[in-house]
Write a structure and sequence with these properties.
498 residues; alpha/beta; TIM Barrel; five-stranded mixed beta sheet; 22 helices; 18 strands; elongated; ArchSynthase1/Queuine_TRR; transferase; EC 2.4.2.48
Length: 498
């Protein structure tokens, strides 16, 4: 792998970074969205993509190669002049057509040389995009074929063109991890998580999250990751938090063709809209009724422009959230707008320990917004750090005031659990939490108490809580004395013994 990616800011698995594309002579800021351009069906002129914020696009070299006139023009003019785009251009290889039709009339060596010859900046070998839910034997066999083709791609003279190393493995996270490790060990440059489109088309964001998390475990932390086909803005925040740096969107054009209007919460039919819930130029200058009355081509172009505006606006919002340290607050807000996105966020939280390893130790205020907040990486990391502390003697863990009868007095705060008073102003313990905490928050705090008591068996603990639910208190070990401050008077350890 060439040194082409620099990370500038990070939050959870999300990164703001610089992808250096030497052949184009540009640096692309990530996370980056690559509009998909079908050279035979152009909805929005690629020369205008910079107006929306695009620094890079993706097109299909196989489609160009099969069209003699297009292929001739591409060789003579170069891909940038053919499409009228000054930024970086990535080309796909025909693997999508392979997955759709079962065969294509090219191979890795031939298509990489063609991509090089037409001036592609980032090329792609012919991998095998194994669909979801196939039997393991097929997934393993096709993964071996993809790995052989990545090794072959290393031997092709591509000049200064970067080359993708797709990470396959179907819906088997361990195969995705193996594929990521193999791909990262090659001399290739960018690492797309492949064959996710069927899962995203069915809103299986939980399976997408597991596939990406598996791939990330195999890839190095400096690997730029592309999530092929992730073009809907409703899942950008989640995909970035999972560690994806590049996305490509055909949705902006395909959805427009069917009169579908993208939002960060889902998709609306133009026929159902009486008002545009957006402040982009298209939505402020037109009404839904005006757009509905337009000729097909004009209507399609305007909807595609809106779809690009809303997509790039969301991506800028994600970048700022990373820099502000509140990416997971944005993920959570988006997750609760759609049940399937919530599934994806919960699958991300299943890997909280993995993403906690790259999460900054200090950032902006932690906001507890729902039961899912109790499973965030910061909560888990705080609980694991309790083993570094050394409470001694009789220790009070309290939600209320201190008591002089104890050797030490610690605070306890859902969802984090216990912590020394000196850490009260340290992230994430400065968190904003609701007055009416949910059961999951109390349970997370109780698990923190249990972790502390388990790590320090020589100390004696008393938990003074404010009416925690019985389900949460079940996690507290019997050796920890408990006092409900709403009902009982807190006494010192000597009085408890009496």
């Amino acid at each position: 792998m060439r040194d082409v990616f620099e990370i500038r800011a990070q939050d959870a698995g999300g990164r703001v970074g610089d992808l250096h594309v030497p052949r184009a002579g540009v640096t692309v800021e990530t996370p980056a969205l690559l509009p998909v351009v079908n050279p035979n069906v152009i909805t929005v002129d690629p020369a205008r993509f910079a107006e929306f914020g695009a620094q890079m696009l993706i097109t299909n070299s196989y489609i160009i190669k099969r069209d003699e006139a297009l292929a001739s023009r591409a060789r003579e003019e170069g891909l940038h002049d053919l499409l009228g785009f000054d930024g970086a251009i990535m080309t796909d290889s025909g693997s999508f057509q392979l997955s759709e039709y079962g065969e294509i009339d090219t191979d890795t060596e031939e298509i990489l040389r063609f991509q090089r010859d037409i001036g592609s900046d980032v090329g792609t070998p012919v991998d095998i995009p194994t669909p979801p839910d196939v039997d393991r034997e097929r997934a393993e066999e096709e993964l071996r074929t993809t790995q052989e083709r990545l090794e072959l791609a290393e031997t092709v003279d591509v000049g200064d063109m970067l080359v993708n190393a797709p990470v396959q493995g179907s819906t088997y996270p361990d195969l995705r991890e193996e594929a990521g490790e193999h791909a990262y060990g090659t001399d290739l440059d960018v690492f797309p998580v492949g064959a996710a489109v069927p899962m995203m088309n069915d809103y299986r964001y939980d399976d997408v999250a597991r596939a990406v998390a598996g791939a990330k475990r195999g890839l190095g932390s400096d690997a730029p990751v592309h999530l092929f086909g992730a073009g809907h803005p409703m899942m950008f925040a989640l995909a970035v938090a999972l560690g994806c740096d590049l996305f490509d969107s055909a949705a902006y054009a395909l959805y427009a063709r069917d009169d579908r209007y993208l939002t960060v919460h889902g998709t609306e039919q133009l026929s159902d809209l009486r008002h545009f819930p957006c402040a982009c130029p298209i939505c402020t200058e037109h009404t839904p009724e005006e757009v509905r009355r337009m000729p097909d081509a004009a209507r399609e172009e305007l909807l595609a422009e809106h779809n690009l505006h809303v997509s790039f606006t969301e991506l800028r919002r994600v970048k700022q959230a990373i820099r502000d340290g509140d990416l997971l607050e944005l993920v959570e807000a988006r997750a609760h707008a759609h049940p399937r996105t919530l599934d994806g966020y919960r699958a991300f939280l299943d890997h909280a320990r993995q993403y906690g390893a790259s999460d900054p130790a200090s950032k902006d205020t932690f906001f507890y917004a729902s039961a899912e907040s109790a499973r965030r990486p910061e909560v888990l990391r705080h609980r694991e750090r309790l083993e570094r502390l050394s409470p001694e003697g009789h220790v009070l863990l309290t939600e209320g005031p201190r008591h002089d009868g104890f050797d030490e007095c610690w605070y306890v705060k859902p969802p984090f659990g216990p912590y020394p008073r000196d850490l009260s102003e340290v992230y994430p313990l400065t968190a904003e939490t609701p007055t009416n905490m949910d059961r999951e928050g109390y349970e997370a705090a109780a698990k923190g108490v249990a972790r502390l008591a388990g790590e320090h068996s020589d100390a004696d603990f008393t938990l003074a809580h404010e009416s925690w639910p019985a389900d949460a208190l079940d996690y507290v070990p019997p050796r920890v004395a408990t006092v409900d401050l709403a009902e009982d008077l807190l006494t010192g350890p000597e009085e408890q013994t009496e």
